[in-house]
Amino acid sequence: MPKTILVVDDDVDFLEQMKVRLEAAGYEVVTAESEARATEILKGLRPDVALVDLMMEHMDGGFSLCYHIKKKDPGVPVILITAVTHETGLEFDTVTDEERSWVKADAMLAKPVRFEQLEREIERLLKGTEIGHPEGAGHG
Amino acid sequence: MDTLKVLVTDDERGMRMGVVRALKNYTVSMPDLAREVGFVVEEAETGEDALAKIEAAPPDILLLDHKLPGLSGLEVLDRLAGRDSATLTVMITAYASLETAVSAIKRGAYDFLAKPFTPAELKNTIRKAAQRLILAQQAKRLAEEKRQVRFQLISVLAHELKAPLAAIEGYLRIIKDRAAGDQPETYDHMLDRSLIRIDGMRKLIGDLLDMTRIESGQKKRDLAALDVRDAARAAIETMAPAAAEQKIALALHASAPVPMTADRGEIEIILNNLVSNAVKYNRQGGRVDVTLTQGHGAVTIAVADTGIGMTPAEAEAVFHEFTRIKNEKTVHIIGSGLGLSIVRKLAALYHGTATVESTPDVGSTFVVTLKTDA
Hints:
The structure holds 2 protein chains of 2 kinds. Chain A is of the alpha/beta class. Helices cover about 45% and strands about 15% of the residues of chain A. Chain A is built from 6 helices and 5 strands; from the N terminus they run E-H-E-H-E-H-E-H-H-E-H. The relative contact order of chain A is 0.15. Helix content of chain B is about 50%, strand content about 25%. Chain B has helices at about 15-25, 45-55, 75-80, 100-105, 120-175, 190-215, 230-245, 265-280, 310-315, 340-350, and strands at about 1-10, 30, 35-45, 60-65, 90-95, 110-115, 225, 250-255, 260-265, 285-295, 300-305, 355-360, 365-370. Chain B is elongated and about 95 Å long. Chains A and B meet through helix 1 of A and helix 5 and helix 6 of B.
């Protein structure tokens, strides 16, 4: 059965590109263009991986969505995507367990996202959930 | 009220007390800057004592007697030379000792006061020093603010340009990799979207140039008699195809010519921005009504739409640079976030205003008032 990936971003072009790429890679893709829409979708869907853009309608929309996904089901791996770490002076990462625990994401990718890298991250996180260690899956 | 610190250095106690008394309730006001300053006075008996106090906490103004028991006033100045400090030194010299005064100024003193002096003379000297200090502070603050604003603008701008670039690059890579299969038609939509994002970038650059020209005052304004209806008609015509796609009705309401002396380009930018927003943020089958009125020495342009509307907080923010209302209703709309800030800046050139009345899901009415007798 194909794995389902939820992609949340306020850029409709990014959503479309992720859909094309991930479907070509054999995944099932569900997209949401806002935090509200994603929350709605999550009521009836447990994605195998969630891809969340940090910058949505509110500055921290991505963070709060990560928090909700993890609160609902800590087993869903979350990849946080951001275009702005340098410009906003926001400095954080998901390398240590402590960072992961407050960022509530298992991995972070910078925009523009290299698809090959994204695919590797998704595979790594999916493998992690299969052996039952979603939070600490193969990092480092 | 701000307080400036004065350090008076004199071995005569009476002298120090006189300074404390004279400055106790003295204030200097700078009405242009809406600032008023008072003074706190610290005392030092010797040059050595003064240096230690300056080291601990530099005063704003140093009143320094030349004739001191240990280090002389001039020697204190020498020790202070090369320090990077905003302290202004006023040298106190014996009457007619012009020579000492001149060498003090050469060593970096700001002014001198001849002994014996009256409280009024002291206050006058202190007032000049205080004004100079406040002006220097003000200039420094303005320069710092300007640097900050510029930095923010460039950061935001970089982000606004990177987003469409990433979108276009993403599509090009998909097309290059044939990631969506071998049917060429599959890629048509991606090419269309890329062109739309390029248009958005071009609009952003155009708006940015408009804004920079208005702000710098570099653009030559060509003021001439014109009829605002012409600019309104042109703006409506420009937006007609986009409006027709969404079945939006565009109407101009102006019973008579609306003459004013203005720069045609500026009036066109105002109307183009308002009408284009009214169409972009409208609903299928909606309306846009442009109403022009004249009276009380002003022309009023009102552009009403039947669109998505805004909350009071959004309505307040929407005139700020790079502010776009981001929600599910606007996610498909491309904009630079500069249009309304430009409209407001242009209105200000005519001593006018740009405001909005809005109700979510009902619509917005943007009103620009331009003074005709300004």
